[in-house]
Specification:
The protein has about 150 residues and is mainly alpha-helical. It folds into 2 domains: about 1-70 and about 135-145, no CATH class; about 70-120, no CATH class. Helix content is about 60%, strand content about 10%. The chain has helices at about 1-40, 50-55, 85-95, 105-110, 120-145; strands at about 55-60, 65-70, 75, 100-105. The strands form 2 sheets. It has a two-stranded antiparallel sheet with strand order 1-2. A two-stranded antiparallel sheet has the order 3-4. Helix 1 (about 1-40) runs antiparallel to helix 5. The longest helix has about 40 residues, at about 1-40. It is elongated, with a radius of gyration of 22 Å. The two termini are about 25 Å apart. It comes from Blastochloris tepida. This is HK97 gp10 family phage protein.
């Protein structure tokens, strides 16, 4: 009985040793393709900072990746010329301990008052989500078959 368990354990560890790197490699490839498609879809703007801010990062868990947009390249200071602006600026400055700002990547994705949204991030992700999952799943299947 224990011999069978050891055989299965060895087989599973060999399969996992091949499947994880294959899945991670494919996931990184798909994330890079997603980043390229998002960059192509985004409005170029004056500086091109929004397109440059779209990037692939390591995910919060092992064997995961995260695609992000925005950050230091797309931050603009909040002007406190209105009561609401001053309130938000005070909140952000108090919470972060730094100059109050907003990230215009979100403003472009979702729109703001008087400016319609120009979705580039979530629309592209939703369009490619099934294909990404299928590609990773297929890469794992190929790795398992060769194990």
């Amino acid at each position: 009985m224990t011999d069978n368990r050891q055989v299965v354990t060895r087989l599973m560890s060999r399969v996992l040793a091949k499947a994880r790197p294959a899945a991670m490699s494919e996931l990184e490839h798909q994330a890079d393709a997603l980043v390229a498609e998002m960059r192509a879809k985004v409005a170029k703007g004056e500086t091109g900072h929004l397109a440059a801010s779209i990037r692939r990062e390591p995910g919060p868990r092992p064997n995961s990746v995260r695609v992000r947009a925005g950050g230091t390249l797309t931050r603009k200071p909040i002007k406190g010329d209105s009561i609401f602006g001053a309130f938000v600026a005070g909140l952000k400055a108090g919470l972060k301990g730094q100059e109050p700002y907003y990230d215009y990547a979100r403003a472009i994705e979702f729109g703001i008052q008087g400016v319609p949204p120009q979705p580039f991030f979530f629309a592209t992700y939703r369009k490619r989500k099934r294909a990404i999952r299928k590609a990773v799943k297929d890469a794992m299947k190929r790795a398992v078959e060769t194990a």
